[in-house]
Write a structure and sequence with these properties.
about 35% helix, about 15% strand, binds iron/sulfur cluster, five-stranded parallel β-sheet, 13 strands, alpha/beta, about 400 residues
Protein backbone atom coordinates (compact mmCIF):
# COMPACT_ATOMS: atom_id res chain seq x y z
CA UNK A 1 0.00 0.00 0.00
CA UNK A 2 1.37 3.41 -0.98
CA UNK A 3 1.32 5.84 1.83
CA UNK A 4 0.75 9.48 0.97
CA UNK A 5 2.28 12.04 3.24
CA UNK A 6 -0.08 14.94 3.43
CA UNK A 7 1.88 18.13 4.19
CA UNK A 8 -0.25 20.84 5.64
CA UNK A 9 0.69 24.23 4.16
CA UNK A 10 1.96 26.56 6.86
CA UNK A 11 -0.01 29.77 7.26
CA UNK A 12 1.92 32.92 6.39
CA UNK A 13 2.07 36.52 7.59
CA UNK A 14 3.58 39.74 6.27
CA UNK A 15 4.19 42.92 8.29
CA UNK A 16 4.27 46.30 6.55
CA UNK A 17 5.79 48.85 8.92
CA UNK A 18 5.54 52.63 8.76
CA UNK A 19 7.23 55.15 11.05
CA UNK A 20 9.83 55.20 13.76
CA UNK A 21 12.18 52.72 15.41
CA UNK A 22 9.58 51.95 18.09
CA UNK A 23 7.27 50.68 15.35
CA UNK A 24 10.09 48.64 13.80
CA UNK A 25 10.84 47.14 17.19
CA UNK A 26 7.13 46.39 17.78
CA UNK A 27 6.99 44.68 14.37
CA UNK A 28 9.85 42.40 15.41
CA UNK A 29 7.79 41.35 18.42
CA UNK A 30 4.62 40.89 16.39
CA UNK A 31 6.69 38.65 14.07
CA UNK A 32 7.81 36.73 17.18
CA UNK A 33 4.19 36.17 18.13
CA UNK A 34 3.38 34.81 14.65
CA UNK A 35 6.46 32.57 14.69
CA UNK A 36 5.43 31.20 18.10
CA UNK A 37 2.04 30.31 16.60
CA UNK A 38 3.68 28.39 13.74
CA UNK A 39 3.26 30.98 10.98
CA UNK A 40 5.91 31.57 8.33
CA UNK A 41 6.89 34.99 7.03
CA UNK A 42 5.80 35.61 3.44
CA UNK A 43 8.24 37.44 1.16
CA UNK A 44 5.51 39.65 -0.31
CA UNK A 45 2.20 41.07 0.98
CA UNK A 46 0.50 39.75 -2.16
CA UNK A 47 1.21 36.18 -1.02
CA UNK A 48 0.36 36.13 2.69
CA UNK A 49 -2.61 34.82 4.70
CA UNK A 50 -2.44 37.64 7.25
CA UNK A 51 -1.22 41.16 6.51
CA UNK A 52 -0.32 43.34 9.50
CA UNK A 53 -0.08 47.08 8.82
CA UNK A 54 1.88 48.82 11.58
CA UNK A 55 0.97 52.49 11.22
CA UNK A 56 2.41 55.87 12.18
CA UNK A 57 0.28 58.92 13.04
CA UNK A 58 2.89 61.50 13.90
CA UNK A 59 1.69 63.69 11.00
CA UNK A 60 -1.25 63.59 8.64
CA UNK A 61 1.10 62.56 5.82
CA UNK A 62 2.09 59.46 7.77
CA UNK A 63 -1.55 58.43 8.14
CA UNK A 64 -2.15 59.15 4.46
CA UNK A 65 0.69 56.79 3.52
CA UNK A 66 -0.91 53.92 5.45
CA UNK A 67 -4.29 54.68 3.90
CA UNK A 68 -2.67 54.76 0.44
CA UNK A 69 -1.04 51.40 1.05
CA UNK A 70 -4.34 49.83 2.13
CA UNK A 71 -6.00 51.30 -0.95
CA UNK A 72 -3.35 49.65 -3.16
CA UNK A 73 -3.92 46.32 -1.38
CA UNK A 74 -7.66 46.59 -1.99
CA UNK A 75 -7.23 47.45 -5.69
CA UNK A 76 -4.66 44.67 -6.25
CA UNK A 77 -6.83 41.88 -4.87
CA UNK A 78 -9.96 43.10 -6.54
CA UNK A 79 -8.18 43.38 -9.94
CA UNK A 80 -6.60 39.95 -9.55
CA UNK A 81 -9.87 38.41 -8.42
CA UNK A 82 -7.92 36.70 -5.65
CA UNK A 83 -9.12 36.34 -2.05
CA UNK A 84 -7.33 38.94 0.00
CA UNK A 85 -5.47 38.21 3.23
CA UNK A 86 -6.88 39.00 6.65
CA UNK A 87 -5.86 42.59 7.34
CA UNK A 88 -4.83 43.61 10.84
CA UNK A 89 -4.11 47.24 11.66
CA UNK A 90 -1.90 48.27 14.56
CA UNK A 91 0.43 51.14 15.54
CA UNK A 92 -0.26 54.77 16.29
CA UNK A 93 -3.35 55.12 14.08
CA UNK A 94 -5.19 53.04 16.68
CA UNK A 95 -5.58 56.31 18.64
CA UNK A 96 -8.67 56.91 16.45
CA UNK A 97 -10.46 54.05 18.23
CA UNK A 98 -11.86 50.89 16.63
CA UNK A 99 -15.23 52.32 15.68
CA UNK A 100 -13.79 55.20 13.67
CA UNK A 101 -11.08 53.04 12.09
CA UNK A 102 -13.48 50.38 10.83
CA UNK A 103 -15.60 53.16 9.36
CA UNK A 104 -12.59 54.98 7.85
CA UNK A 105 -10.89 51.82 6.54
CA UNK A 106 -13.51 49.16 5.84
CA UNK A 107 -10.84 46.82 4.41
CA UNK A 108 -9.46 46.32 7.95
CA UNK A 109 -10.59 43.06 9.59
CA UNK A 110 -9.01 43.43 13.01
CA UNK A 111 -7.37 46.09 15.16
CA UNK A 112 -4.46 45.21 17.40
CA UNK A 113 -4.00 47.88 20.12
CA UNK A 114 -0.31 48.76 20.18
CA UNK A 115 -0.05 48.51 23.96
CA UNK A 116 -0.96 44.82 23.63
CA UNK A 117 2.25 44.05 21.74
CA UNK A 118 4.14 44.05 25.04
CA UNK A 119 7.84 43.62 25.80
CA UNK A 120 8.19 39.97 26.48
CA UNK A 121 7.35 38.30 23.22
CA UNK A 122 10.63 37.08 21.68
CA UNK A 123 11.50 39.30 18.72
CA UNK A 124 12.24 37.97 15.23
CA UNK A 125 15.18 40.07 14.06
CA UNK A 126 16.67 40.36 10.59
CA UNK A 127 19.74 42.32 11.70
CA UNK A 128 22.19 39.84 13.22
CA UNK A 129 24.60 42.34 14.79
CA UNK A 130 22.50 45.18 16.15
CA UNK A 131 19.27 44.83 18.17
CA UNK A 132 16.57 47.26 19.30
CA UNK A 133 15.47 46.60 22.87
CA UNK A 134 12.33 48.32 24.17
CA UNK A 135 12.81 49.39 27.79
CA UNK A 136 9.56 51.30 28.17
CA UNK A 137 6.33 51.91 26.33
CA UNK A 138 3.93 54.82 26.24
CA UNK A 139 4.47 58.36 27.48
CA UNK A 140 3.27 60.51 30.36
CA UNK A 141 4.54 63.82 29.08
CA UNK A 142 1.64 65.11 26.98
CA UNK A 143 3.48 67.61 24.84
CA UNK A 144 0.53 69.45 23.35
CA UNK A 145 1.28 68.49 19.71
CA UNK A 146 1.91 64.78 20.26
CA UNK A 147 -0.35 61.83 19.60
CA UNK A 148 1.85 59.23 21.33
CA UNK A 149 0.28 59.40 24.84
CA UNK A 150 -3.09 58.64 23.21
CA UNK A 151 -1.93 55.92 20.84
CA UNK A 152 0.55 54.17 23.13
CA UNK A 153 -0.96 54.94 26.51
CA UNK A 154 0.80 55.65 29.79
CA UNK A 155 4.51 55.15 30.26
CA UNK A 156 5.41 51.73 31.62
CA UNK A 157 9.00 50.72 32.38
CA UNK A 158 9.99 47.17 31.52
CA UNK A 159 11.56 45.30 34.42
CA UNK A 160 15.34 45.18 34.78
CA UNK A 161 15.26 41.36 34.87
CA UNK A 162 13.34 41.11 31.62
CA UNK A 163 15.67 43.56 29.83
CA UNK A 164 18.81 41.81 31.07
CA UNK A 165 17.43 38.40 30.11
CA UNK A 166 17.01 39.65 26.56
CA UNK A 167 20.47 41.25 26.55
CA UNK A 168 22.00 37.98 27.77
CA UNK A 169 20.24 36.00 25.08
CA UNK A 170 21.34 38.48 22.38
CA UNK A 171 24.93 38.47 23.63
CA UNK A 172 24.99 34.66 23.49
CA UNK A 173 23.85 34.84 19.85
CA UNK A 174 26.71 37.18 18.92
CA UNK A 175 24.98 40.57 19.02
CA UNK A 176 27.43 43.38 19.79
CA UNK A 177 25.36 46.55 19.43
CA UNK A 178 22.15 47.44 21.23
CA UNK A 179 19.80 50.41 21.15
CA UNK A 180 17.59 50.86 24.23
CA UNK A 181 14.27 52.25 23.07
CA UNK A 182 11.54 54.29 24.75
CA UNK A 183 9.79 57.64 24.43
CA UNK A 184 11.69 58.97 27.48
CA UNK A 185 14.48 56.50 28.15
CA UNK A 186 16.08 58.70 30.79
CA UNK A 187 12.89 58.46 32.89
CA UNK A 188 13.12 54.65 32.93
CA UNK A 189 12.34 53.15 36.35
CA UNK A 190 11.71 56.47 38.11
CA UNK A 191 8.98 56.80 40.69
CA UNK A 192 5.97 58.56 39.23
CA UNK A 193 4.51 61.70 40.81
CA UNK A 194 1.20 61.40 39.01
CA UNK A 195 -0.43 63.48 36.33
CA UNK A 196 -3.57 65.52 36.16
CA UNK A 197 -3.40 66.07 32.43
CA UNK A 198 -4.96 62.79 31.38
CA UNK A 199 -7.95 63.45 33.61
CA UNK A 200 -8.39 66.88 32.08
CA UNK A 201 -8.31 65.48 28.56
CA UNK A 202 -10.64 62.61 29.36
CA UNK A 203 -13.21 64.82 31.02
CA UNK A 204 -13.53 66.42 27.62
CA UNK A 205 -14.02 69.86 29.13
CA UNK A 206 -12.90 73.05 27.46
CA UNK A 207 -9.53 74.19 28.71
CA UNK A 208 -6.72 76.57 27.86
CA UNK A 209 -2.96 76.27 28.09
CA UNK A 210 -2.94 77.71 31.62
CA UNK A 211 -5.06 74.75 32.82
CA UNK A 212 -2.36 72.26 31.83
CA UNK A 213 -0.16 70.90 34.60
CA UNK A 214 3.57 71.46 34.27
CA UNK A 215 5.27 68.94 32.04
CA UNK A 216 8.76 69.26 33.48
CA UNK A 217 9.06 65.78 34.90
CA UNK A 218 6.34 63.34 35.82
CA UNK A 219 8.71 61.67 38.26
CA UNK A 220 10.35 62.24 41.61
CA UNK A 221 13.98 63.34 41.44
CA UNK A 222 15.93 60.27 42.51
CA UNK A 223 17.87 60.56 45.74
CA UNK A 224 20.39 57.95 44.63
CA UNK A 225 21.82 56.83 41.27
CA UNK A 226 19.04 57.22 38.66
CA UNK A 227 17.63 53.86 37.52
CA UNK A 228 18.54 54.49 33.87
CA UNK A 229 22.19 54.93 34.85
CA UNK A 230 22.04 51.62 36.73
CA UNK A 231 20.50 50.00 33.66
CA UNK A 232 23.28 51.32 31.40
CA UNK A 233 25.88 49.93 33.78
CA UNK A 234 24.16 46.54 33.95
CA UNK A 235 23.95 46.27 30.14
CA UNK A 236 27.59 47.41 29.79
CA UNK A 237 28.67 44.59 32.08
CA UNK A 238 28.10 42.04 29.27
CA UNK A 239 31.55 41.60 27.74
CA UNK A 240 30.13 40.71 24.32
CA UNK A 241 28.21 43.98 24.07
CA UNK A 242 30.50 46.59 22.54
CA UNK A 243 28.19 49.51 21.75
CA UNK A 244 25.07 50.86 23.50
CA UNK A 245 22.80 53.56 22.13
CA UNK A 246 19.55 54.92 23.55
CA UNK A 247 16.61 56.73 22.01
CA UNK A 248 14.90 59.07 22.88
CA UNK A 249 16.12 61.09 25.80
CA UNK A 250 14.51 64.42 26.68
CA UNK A 251 15.85 67.44 28.56
CA UNK A 252 13.77 66.56 31.63
CA UNK A 253 15.08 63.76 33.89
CA UNK A 254 18.51 64.20 32.24
CA UNK A 255 20.35 63.98 35.53
CA UNK A 256 24.00 64.95 36.02
CA UNK A 257 24.83 61.35 36.91
CA UNK A 258 23.60 60.26 33.49
CA UNK A 259 25.89 62.84 31.84
CA UNK A 260 28.82 61.55 33.89
CA UNK A 261 27.98 57.95 32.93
CA UNK A 262 27.85 58.76 29.21
CA UNK A 263 31.20 60.52 29.48
CA UNK A 264 32.94 57.76 31.42
CA UNK A 265 31.44 54.64 29.85
CA UNK A 266 33.26 53.86 26.58
CA UNK A 267 30.53 51.46 25.46
CA UNK A 268 27.96 54.25 25.26
CA UNK A 269 27.77 55.84 21.83
CA UNK A 270 29.01 59.45 21.67
CA UNK A 271 25.86 60.56 19.82
CA UNK A 272 22.99 61.80 22.00
CA UNK A 273 19.60 62.56 20.48
CA UNK A 274 18.04 65.42 22.43
CA UNK A 275 14.85 66.90 20.93
CA UNK A 276 14.45 70.63 21.51
CA UNK A 277 11.35 71.26 19.31
CA UNK A 278 11.75 75.05 19.49
CA UNK A 279 14.28 77.67 20.56
CA UNK A 280 11.60 80.05 21.81
CA UNK A 281 10.53 79.82 25.44
CA UNK A 282 7.03 81.01 24.55
CA UNK A 283 6.60 78.28 21.93
CA UNK A 284 8.05 75.70 24.35
CA UNK A 285 5.44 76.81 26.87
CA UNK A 286 2.63 76.43 24.32
CA UNK A 287 4.02 73.01 23.45
CA UNK A 288 4.06 72.10 27.17
CA UNK A 289 7.62 70.88 26.83
CA UNK A 290 8.37 71.79 30.42
CA UNK A 291 11.86 73.26 29.89
CA UNK A 292 13.33 76.50 28.63
CA UNK A 293 16.04 77.07 26.03
CA UNK A 294 18.33 77.88 28.98
CA UNK A 295 17.72 74.43 30.53
CA UNK A 296 18.28 72.81 27.14
CA UNK A 297 21.58 74.65 26.72
CA UNK A 298 22.53 73.65 30.24
CA UNK A 299 22.23 69.94 29.34
CA UNK A 300 24.06 70.46 26.02
CA UNK A 301 26.93 72.32 27.68
CA UNK A 302 27.26 69.80 30.48
CA UNK A 303 27.41 66.96 27.95
CA UNK A 304 30.09 68.69 25.90
CA UNK A 305 32.06 69.70 28.95
CA UNK A 306 31.94 66.10 30.18
CA UNK A 307 33.27 64.83 26.84
CA UNK A 308 34.01 67.14 23.88
CA UNK A 309 33.58 64.16 21.52
CA UNK A 310 29.87 63.92 22.31
CA UNK A 311 27.70 64.97 19.36
CA UNK A 312 24.06 65.96 19.69
CA UNK A 313 21.09 65.70 17.36
CA UNK A 314 17.61 67.08 17.70
CA UNK A 315 13.98 67.25 16.55
CA UNK A 316 12.32 70.59 15.77
CA UNK A 317 8.80 71.57 14.76
CA UNK A 318 8.34 74.70 12.68
CA UNK A 319 5.05 76.54 12.20
CA UNK A 320 3.61 75.63 15.60
CA UNK A 321 0.39 77.63 16.22
CA UNK A 322 1.14 81.29 16.82
CA UNK A 323 4.86 80.98 15.95
CA UNK A 324 5.90 84.56 15.17
CA UNK A 325 8.90 85.54 13.05
CA UNK A 326 10.73 86.46 16.26
CA UNK A 327 9.95 83.07 17.83
CA UNK A 328 11.19 81.28 14.73
CA UNK A 329 14.32 83.47 14.78
CA UNK A 330 14.95 82.28 18.34
CA UNK A 331 15.10 78.69 16.98
CA UNK A 332 17.45 79.76 14.18
CA UNK A 333 19.66 81.48 16.76
CA UNK A 334 19.69 78.35 18.91
CA UNK A 335 20.62 76.23 15.87
CA UNK A 336 23.58 78.51 15.17
CA UNK A 337 24.65 78.31 18.80
CA UNK A 338 24.28 74.59 19.40
CA UNK A 339 25.42 73.32 15.97
CA UNK A 340 23.55 70.03 16.16
CA UNK A 341 25.09 67.16 14.23
CA UNK A 342 21.72 66.41 12.71
CA UNK A 343 18.23 67.90 13.04
CA UNK A 344 14.95 66.29 12.08
CA UNK A 345 12.89 69.34 11.20
CA UNK A 346 9.14 68.81 10.83
CA UNK A 347 6.33 71.05 9.70
CA UNK A 348 3.57 71.28 12.32
CA UNK A 349 0.43 69.38 11.46
CA UNK A 350 -2.42 69.29 14.01
CA UNK A 351 -3.22 65.78 15.19
CA UNK A 352 -6.92 65.37 16.04
CA UNK A 353 -7.47 64.72 19.73
CA UNK A 354 -4.25 66.35 20.94
CA UNK A 355 -4.24 69.40 23.21
CA UNK A 356 -2.75 71.72 20.55
CA UNK A 357 -5.52 70.67 18.15
CA UNK A 358 -8.05 71.48 20.85
CA UNK A 359 -6.74 74.80 22.11
CA UNK A 360 -4.85 76.49 19.26
CA UNK A 361 -5.68 77.54 15.74
CA UNK A 362 -3.33 76.13 13.08
CA UNK A 363 -2.73 79.70 11.93
CA UNK A 364 0.64 79.65 10.17
CA UNK A 365 0.19 79.54 6.37
CA UNK A 366 1.76 76.48 4.76
CA UNK A 367 4.04 78.62 2.58
CA UNK A 368 5.52 80.23 5.71
CA UNK A 369 5.95 76.83 7.40
CA UNK A 370 7.69 75.51 4.28
CA UNK A 371 10.10 78.50 4.11
CA UNK A 372 10.96 78.08 7.80
CA UNK A 373 11.51 74.38 7.27
CA UNK A 374 13.87 75.00 4.33
CA UNK A 375 15.87 77.62 6.20
CA UNK A 376 16.33 75.55 9.34
CA UNK A 377 17.10 72.36 7.46
CA UNK A 378 19.74 74.25 5.48
CA UNK A 379 21.33 75.72 8.62
CA UNK A 380 21.35 72.51 10.65
CA UNK A 381 21.84 69.77 8.11
CA UNK A 382 23.74 71.40 5.27
CA UNK A 383 25.66 74.50 6.40
CA UNK A 384 27.09 73.11 9.60
CA UNK A 385 28.04 69.61 8.55
CA UNK A 386 31.76 70.14 8.95
CA UNK A 387 31.67 72.39 11.99
CA UNK A 388 32.92 71.12 15.28
CA UNK A 389 30.49 71.32 18.21
CA UNK A 390 31.13 74.25 20.51
CA UNK A 391 30.32 74.95 24.13
CA UNK A 392 28.06 78.00 24.26
S1 LIG B 1 7.78 63.26 25.30
FE1 LIG B 1 6.31 64.58 24.26
S2 LIG B 1 6.90 64.37 22.07
FE2 LIG B 1 7.83 62.64 23.15
S3 LIG B 1 6.37 60.96 22.98
FE3 LIG B 1 5.94 62.00 24.92
S4 LIG B 1 4.35 63.51 24.46
FE4 LIG B 1 5.27 62.85 22.51
Amino acid sequence: MVKYLVMEKLKTYYIHTFGCQSNKSDSERIAGDYAARGYQEASDWRECDELIVNTCAIRQRAEDRAKGFLYNVMVYFSEQGKPRPKIILTGCMTHHGSEKLYEMLPIVDEILPINEVGFNQAAVRKDLKHAWIPISTGCNSFCTFCIVPYSRGREVSRSLESILEEVESLASKGYEELTLLGMNVNSWGLERVGIGFRKLMMENKKFTRTDLPDNQSQYLTPTETPPFVKLLRAVSAFAQIKKIRFLTSNPWDFHDELIAEIASNPKIDRYVHLPVQSGSNDVLYRMNRGYTRERYLDVVNKLRQADPNITIGTDIIVGFPGETDAEFEATVKLAKEVKWKVGFVAIYSPRPGTASWRIYEDDIPHIVKKKRWELLDQIINKDQLDDRPVIV
